[in-house]
């Protein structure tokens, strides 16, 4: 029940941030959602959602927010790899994958 409420709050925060075009706040809410989904065994969904927002950024990769996002993405990618998932099928958009590789 608590996890469901938390998920709803994170999704609402992402929605509000998108409407306001506040990418940093969208990133922060997405990181929180991705952590929750990882705990729930939804690593694929978490990885996809996180890579989507991270691919928007073209600079600022040294900031704490993007460094944390990269570390979380790497953790999720490792989990998916260890579970036999092909990341190319999860994220066919190569731009999203490039964020994870180049930074």
Concise synopsis of the structure shown:
The chain is mainly α and 103 residues long. It has helices at residues 2-19, 23-39, 43-54, 64-82, 87-90, 94-102.
Give a verbal description of the structure:
The N and C termini lie far apart (36 Å). The model has no long low-confidence stretch (mean pLDDT 86). Helix 2 (23-39) packs antiparallel against helix 3 (43-54) and helix 2 runs parallel beside helix 4 (64-82). It is built from six helices and no strands. It has helices at 2-19, 23-39, 43-54, 64-82, 87-90, 94-102. The protein has one domain (2-102): Serine Threonine Protein Phosphatase 5, Tetratricopeptide repeat (Alpha Horseshoe), CATH 1.25.40. The protein is mainly α.
Multimeric state: single chain
The strand count comes to 0
Q: Could you tell me the mean pLDDT?
A: 86
The stretches of 5 or more residues where confidence is low (pLDDT under 50) are none
Nearest-angstrom radius of gyration?
A: 13 Å
> Helices and strands, in N-to-C order?
HHHHHH
Per the CATH scheme, the topology name is Serine Threonine Protein Phosphatase 5, Tetratricopeptide repeat
What's the level 1 CATH class? Mainly Alpha
Helix proportion range? over 70%
Overall 3D form: flat
Number of helices: 6
Secondary structural class: mainly alpha
Main β-sheet description: none
CATH architecture: Alpha Horseshoe
Distance N terminus to C terminus? 36 Å
Residue fraction in strands:
under 5%
Count of domain modules: 1
